Amino acid sequence: MPPETGEAMFVLKNAWAALKRHKWRSLLTIIIALLVTFGTMFSTAVIHASDTAYGSGYDAQQPTLDLKLKQSVQSTYDGADSSWSKHYLTWTKYSTYASAAQSANLTFTYTFTEAVPVRQTAKFKAVAGTADQDAGKTGGEFTLRTFYSKEAAAANAQGAFTIVKGKNISYSTSSTDSTSALISETVAKKNNLKVGDTFTIANPTDAKTTVKLKVAGIYRYKDGKAAASTKLAKDNRDNAIFVGYYAFAINGFDSTTGKGWAIPDLQVTFTMDSMSAYKKFVKLINKAKLPSGYEIVSTSLDAYAARIKPLGRLAERLRVVRIVLLAVGGLLLIVLVALSLVGRRGEIATAMLVGVSKTRIAWQFMLEVLIPTVCGFAIGALAGGFGTKPLAHWAAGGYDVAMSASLVWQTIGYGLLACLVLAFIAMFRVVAVRKISVFEPRATTEAKEESK
């Protein structure tokens, strides 16, 4: 039974006095309880987030699917050999795969990019390459690229870009804008062009066929890196000109009859509505025969895997840390509680002899354990609740780890249970002492207690 109010104050006063007599042991108990609680909350939250990310989180992805040239083939690229365009996939090939997916009742959306080299003209010059060749061999010094949608633009293979002057081009399929284009800051400065100015480019296989475009906006790559020098000017990412699909098609670049560099480099990206649909689509493509030199890749899944990889590494380390923390921390707390009980047989027996009940003494000993352990537990729980997210964000490469309500309540439950177990150990020490033992020789009494 809990003590009465007057007794409670007496018990609390005695417990507090005992803690003050051994302040360093009490402080160490608080610190260990804090570390065990915080470490357990933090590690459990990270491990749970990792398990979710690699499990249900992965399964919930809506993967993109692309057909890309293998690196072994890409490494043989020669920008001065127009026969390289034989590696390009056509609309016919992509349609075969799309039809197979539709026949299998797979749901997907798609977007695409197309690109062709275009020639510079007398008043519009590209950033030179380190070993440029005649445009008759390379198709030109610029690369004209179109994006079918803003998603395709965001996934630009040369790098994500932002508009620093002017406005973006329209990605609407209903757009009839045939002249608006985006050019890089570098090219704009080189040619002294500003928003609203016009410039002229020439066809990759016919220098006399020209197209006039207008600068709608000037872009900059978001990574802030200077373009790496390239052998050919057209391969320099700063020499990329971006236009809407209507402008690309109406000006004759979306050709199905072109030869050499006039054949557009078509890249279609499928987005599946589920992982199961993605896996089925992969099987359908392989069954329909993957083009020679190509492989199936998923940029979105690769990006997701890269994003959660730091989280996974952290979680694997914390699985070990959590076990060690619970084992060592729990053992240290038990040792500290045991140390607080050593040599107090006489104190307990004397108190009982002068009329203090075992219940009151037991409550005092329990409070001596509960005050520092609950205090450390409470501070650790608050630190874990509020500190897990920012700490995990830093340690897991920017991945956000949430502290769920269920984990908080679970920690509170197990934490309080552990505190009570330690308190009961102290209580049992009191129960084990008999009043008569104060009159017995110390060695005899201890021998009796050891024989129990």
UniProtKB/TrEMBL annotation:
Keyword Membrane assigned: yes
Assigned protein family: Belongs to the ABC-4 integral membrane protein family.
Molecular functions per Gene Ontology: transmembrane transporter activity
Subcellular location per the Swiss-Prot or TrEMBL entry: Cell membrane
Name under which the protein is recorded: SalY-type ABC antimicrobial peptide transportsystem permease component
Keyword Membrane among record annotations: yes
Keywords: Cell membrane, Membrane, Transmembrane, Transmembrane helix
Gene Ontology CC terms: plasma membrane
Membrane-spanning intervals of the chain: 320-342, 363-387, 407-432
Origin species: Bifidobacterium boum
Taxonomic lineage of the native organism: Bacteria, Bacillati, Actinomycetota, Actinomycetes, Bifidobacteriales
One Pfam family cited in the UniProt record for this chain: FtsX
Membrane topology type: Multi-pass membrane protein
Domain annotation ABC3 transporter permease C-terminal: ranges: 323-428
Main location: membrane
